[in-house]
Structures are given as C-alpha cells and as structure tokens.
Amino acid sequence: MNVKNAFIFTSLLFGAVLSGTNSAEAASFTSNVTGNDPTKDIILNSITQNGKNINNFSYINKAVIQYNTPRTNDPNSGAASTDRGDKATSPLATAEDPTGNAIAAFLGNNNLNNIIDTEDVGAFTIDVFFDSQITKDNSGLDSLFFWERGMNSDLGIQALDSSGKVIGTYKIVNQTRNSSNYAGFKIDTTEIGEAQKVGSWGVSLDWLGVTKLSGLRLTANSSFSGPDFKIIARKTTPEPTTILGLGAVAAIGLLRRRQWKQSSVWEQRDFVR
Ligand SMILES: [Ca+2]
Ligand SMILES: [Ca+2]
Ligand SMILES: [Ca+2]
Ligand SMILES: [Ca+2]
Asked: Ligand 1 centroid vs 222 CA: distance in angstroms?
C-alpha cells in the first residue's frame, strides 16, 4: 500500500467507525442470570442488548432518603422497604423502615432477588448514587437497567449530578408493565405469597436529558402502585472510538511527514519524465 492509499484507507476506517456507532435507541434487553428458583438468589451475570454483551456494571453504593411514608401500626403502611426472595441471601436483614445504607446495600449488588419493595399507596423520594460516574457514549447501549417485580408499578426517575442536584428531565419508568418486557424470571419475596413476574427496561442518558450523571432521584407517589425494583448501571468505559481516533490522528500526522520528505524525490522523477 503506498502512502496515498494508506492515508485514504485510514480516513475511511476512521469515518466508518464514527458513523457506525450511533444505532437506534435501545430499550429492551436480556437478563443473563444464574438461578431459576423464585425464592432463591437470582444472580445477574450479564445483559445482552443489540447483540452486545454487557458485564461491567456500576452499582448503587449510597442512598439518601428525602422522604419515605412513615410506618404506623398497619402492617401495610409505610412505603419503601428492603426485601429479598424467601430463601435468598441478602447483605442485611430485611427492614420495613430501612435506613439509606440498607437501601443501598439491597440495590447495590447483582442479586436480582434483593430489591426495594414499596407498599401500594406509599410515597417516597430517595436519592441513590452509583460507585462511578455514568457518562454518555456512542455504544448505542442503554446506561441504566431497571427491573420491577409484578410488572404492575411505575417509578419516577431524574438524574443527579455529583453534588446531588437534580439535572435533566423527570421521567417515569412504566415500560416494565408491558408484557413484552418480561425479564424471563419470577421472584417470590418475603412481602408476597407467591412468585410474580419481573419486567425489565433499559434507559439511556439521552432520555433523561443529560450527558452524565452520578445518581438518580427515585420517586413514587400513591398512584404509582408501589414499585418493587432493582437498578444497575452499565459502567462507563473509555471509548474505543476515542482510542482509535487518536491512533488515526497520529497515523495521519506520520503519513504527512513522510509525504513531505518524499515530495522532493517525486518532483525530481517528474522532471526526468
Ligand atoms: Ca413493606
Ligand atoms: Ca410491583
Ligand atoms: Ca413469599
Ligand atoms: Ca409493591
């Protein structure tokens, strides 16, 4: 390959990589799990979306309860509580009136049978934060993955910046109600008497109107039918396009220098002809 062809080839490769990365907004995904007993651990190994495998996750590691409907003598009072499969393991004992640390512990692992259960007419505002910043990329994959037990509830979400300030647009995740978004497994937790189907849905940063986030403000009001949920984020990794892009820029620079060096030789040849 001569210098000119090498230059064209590099440019084409660079262009192809740039144009091939922005696929249509994804949303549904496949949960690849170990465990099929609704009462026991259901461990998420990876997610498949758009034919790509995701196995590098960011987990929730902090939760700040802004409001959680107080408990009364009524066993069905309150709102968000920590819950697990009847025979599943969990980092802590379940609690009807959990602390922020307990909420983070139940959400912050890959056991899809450790969740937050919400009473039907309960309300909450809980800020959760991930162990690393989630940044928009060109992978065409969603950044946030939601599961909801029962496929019968809504969950309000809005992005939080690193200082805990709400940014972007408030959205309601209700696609987990759609029968076509069945995650392929059921769970039977301590709060319910029989196994219920789990629905899932992926969310992009675009949908939330942000290019990066550190956490999410989660909300439910009395009309949301008490969301029973799990949330895991796709860990942001360096862009392959950026690495390749920098490589291409370096290659172009090198080729130009070679061209410049050889140009005097070519001019002499032309003169001879
Ligand atoms: Ca409860
Ligand atoms: Ca539910
Ligand atoms: Ca049960
Ligand atoms: Ca519920």
From this structure: 14
Distance, CA 203 to ligand 2 centroid (Å)? 19
- Count structural domains, the chain: 2
Task: Confirm if 148 and 155 have CB atoms less than 8 A apart.
Answer: yes
* Separation of alpha carbons 90 and 109, rounded Å: 9
Q: Contact, 233 vs 130, CB < 8 A?
A: yes
Distance 101 CA to ligand 4 centre (A): 21
Do 216 and 252 fall within a single domain? no
How many A from CA of 229 to the centre of ligand 4? 9
What's the 82 CA to ligand 1 centre distance in angstroms? Answer: 7
Separation CA 95–CA 77 (nearest Å): 13
Find the 120 Cα to ligand 4 centroid distance in Å.
Answer: 5
Using the mean position of ligand 3's atoms as its centre, give its distance from the Cα of residue 190 in Å.
4
Contacts of residue 15, Cβ cutoff 8 Å, sequence gap at least 6: none
Tell me which residue range forms the domain holding 245: 241-272
Q: How far is the CA of 59 from the centre of ligand 4 (A)?
A: 22
Q: What is the distance between the alpha carbons of residues 82 and 105, in angstroms, rounded to a whole number?
A: 9
What spacing in Å lies between the alpha carbon of 196 and ligand 2's midpoint? 9
Whether 119 maps to a domain, the answer reads: yes
Question: Going residue by residue through the chain (273 aa), what tens digit of pLDDT does each one get?
Answer: 455 554 444 444 444 444 334 444 569 999 999 999 999 999 999 999 999 999 999 999 999 999 999 999 998 899 999 999 999 999 999 999 999 999 999 999 999 999 999 999 999 999 999 999 999 999 999 999 999 999 999 999 999 999 999 999 999 999 999 999 999 999 999 999 999 999 999 999 999 999 999 999 999 999 999 999 999 999 998 766 655 666 666 666 666 666 655 554 444 554 444
Q: Nearest ligand, CA of residue 174?
A: 2
**Is 115 part of a structural domain of the chain?**
yes
